[in-house]
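Re: the multi-chain job from yesterday

Posting the exact lines I submitted so nobody has to dig through the queue logs.
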Amino acid sequence: MNTITSTTINWLYACNTEDVPSNGGVCVKFDHLQIALFHFSRRNEWYATQNLCPHKQQMALSRGMIGSHSGEPKVACPFHKKTFSLKDGRCLSDEDECQIDVYPVKVASGRVYIGFEITASSK
Amino acid sequence: MKIVIVGNGMVGFKCCEKLRSKLPNPNTQITVFGEEPRPAYDRVHLTDYFTHHAPEELELAPSSWYADHHIELKTADPIVKIDRENKRVYSSKGFEEEYDALILATGSSPLVPNMPGTNLPGVFVYRTIEDLEAIKAYAPKARNAAVLGGGLLGLEAAKALVDLGVGETHIVEYASRLMPKQIDHGGHEVLQRQLENMGLKVHTNRNTFNIYGHSKIEGMQFSDGARLEIDMLIISAGIRPRDQLAKDAGLETGSRGGITVNDLLQTSDPSIYAIGECAIHRGMVYGLVAPGYEMAEVAAATIAGEPNHFPGYDLSTKLKLIGIDVASFGDPFPPSTEYRAIVFEDRLKGIYKKINISNDGQFLIGGILVGDAKEYNMLLQTTKNKLKLPANPEDILLGNRGNGPQHGLEQLPPDAVICSCENVSKGDIVAAVSNGHENFNAVKKCTKAGSCCGGCSPMVKDIITHTMQQQGKYTRKMICEHFEYSRQELYDLIKIKELKSFEDVLDQVGKGDGCEVCKPTVASIMASLWNEMILEKGNDTAQDSNDRFLANIQKGGTYSVVPRIPGGEITPKKLMVIARVADKYGLYTKITGGQRIDMFGAHLNDLPNIWEELIAAGFESGHAYGKALRTVKSCVGSTWCRFGLHDSVSFAIRVEERYRGLRAPHKIKSAVSGCTRECAEAQSKDFGIIATDKGWNLYVCGNGGAKPQHAQLLAADLDSETCIRFIDRFLMFYIKTADPLTRTATWLNKLDGGISYLRNVVVNDSLGIAGELEAAMQQLVDQYKCEWKEVVNTPALRKRFSHFVNAPTEKDPTVQFSGLRDQKRAAEWTAAKP
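And the result, structure tokens for all chains:
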């Protein structure tokens, strides 16, 4: 009756490090999926989130400004300045329920990869 | 206990609130009977209903409020009979209700003089939302309308007619002056002139005895035989207390109406109370809301067993009538032997101020203010609290000539009433601030001060600031958590340290990583100081999104393109270029409010190609995306117009080309009109120029937008060179000192000393910085380059204009358009997913 869940991360190549502006974002296309990729060079960190802002369903987060709030890295949507945590995707601007998906990022030899979890369960 | 309230107007509602807060136990039954079909609404702001509001927005509380507070509300069901012996009331729908205490808040009805013709179609009263709806429906048919009665409500009604676009509006008053209860003849003259400037016709000393017409009103006739032909009339001749219910029940009433009450607000039957406009107290019927609220408080207290009494009420009022301040306070008309008066009059500006001072010169008794009532609250408090006047009493009239405005606040005793609608004292506000309510909204929520008419808001704000300063708590306006400076301080720091990238600014004077508040602020300051290409030195990602892509993001994620068209002048050839480009890239085109052409729906990827074509044809960036100079609108001017005094188009082009690309705390708009007819609407701009026969008049700090404000005259009859010099100084002074995202109008409103101070700085160089300001502007002008030209010619910058980093030629496939009038439009927002 035990359920065994195994999670593996599938790393997909996005672009090279120099393709992303420092302290800014770009949009990466994986088939029909749009991912916002951010190089927070001031903190020497990389983040990836969904590109869709859930507030008005706009493909825009990659064009947003990034920054921090009490140390928490965040991105502000260019449309109405709703802010989301780059760490866990929760909305920081108000008590909104909306949440964005975040993805792990890996950099190796000047190449940037975004990770997608593949979960398999077996009984 | 069972309490029944008859009447659900503003005062009845206030009484519900007061009773429930004093008697919170739901075992105390409270039932309200109202005659109107809706819950209590805000009658004070009724005139606003014409311009902005739906009826629900005037509601004082939603129907659910009554249920939440265990109050039974019966609307559209007036009480028709009181049985005092059995303590019961009967409603029109047949309800029967017992009471231990009965409160009559039946209000008043409009006084309609007894004369022929008052029931003709086209004759209205001004009291309820239904009255207003009827007026609104009838007004489009009316060419000439009149208001009978030049009191407070009459002038409100006249404003409503003006707002409704009635061709000509007359005000007819029986007395020798308008607002006879509030202002004297001197005040009347100023007020009348101001009203006439707005196109209203004022008739005083007019005794109307007949309203005539066949199937509808055709005119009114006066006792001297004169006639006034009109096709619409609003009667606003005063109020008549609604006391019939009380009379029928055998309660004592005044000889000219009104239910007689004592200081506890009890009628001749001690278990029945009367409050508001239906009551007569010591011979006075109060037609204002503030005393009605006070009566509601006293009656509720008496019923709850708290000792209280109503001593009468100060009739001081401050109003804004058709944009004109009118106020009277204390005793505006004391007996002539008991006072000395100081009068200040400025006919040019339409200002009249009179203060009545006790014969010994020590105390203020009362006064009248027309045209400018800024000092009203302070004068009222000085009168009420019997504060000693300074050695030169005229100082309090002429404003702060040396002493700061705070001086008087300190003098006020804690029990000084600041908000008279809600009876909130200075002490209440100070206590709220001390308990941590450190901004206006928090204090308003906690004390209710400023929540009714809002007249006391500036004073409440001053008290909050003052209290925080005294407690050593007052902090400067900081940009955000990353910069502990105001914008002005940051501007000076960046300038002195010659910082040119956001990272450097953050390293040297800030902390942390920055955010969406400080990044654009710092980027804007650097652009205002150095005017370097904003997308270089790593500053691209510090720009607000629109500046980062040099275009305005629109619904759906596409951008709009606005080339500069200086002064609105464009050749047919250039029009053809715009047409060709818009057609080629499938853009929606629209003429903007600033006399240029906006092209919408451009994909991010297409922007550099679009601009490449526009620039090749001689266009340049219009900076519609930046907090920068937008457009300088112009009328056609003396080259074609038969009225034009100067060539407004040429001057507008010169001004626009001088300040193009100038970045500032907020956007800047301008206009040049070739004569006083002002077709370019220069007085609604951040700076506006109007031709005179001697030169140019320069107006500053006007605004359209949500809070329209007319620009004020900075200097008159200037030659072109001086005009440009003054604009240089004005703009640089604004850029140097304004808070982030503050338009010039708001900046001026917050500037100590206002327009006189600004004039001193700009025209008289009182700070000795004029040369510096002019040099700073000249440097920016010399540095100007078209940003789009640089992007088009710089491959590294051009590369950033793609939607997908890993598929640079592909456009965003989620962008959707729909069709509208032979063009396209952005698809509507889709709702957020649950």
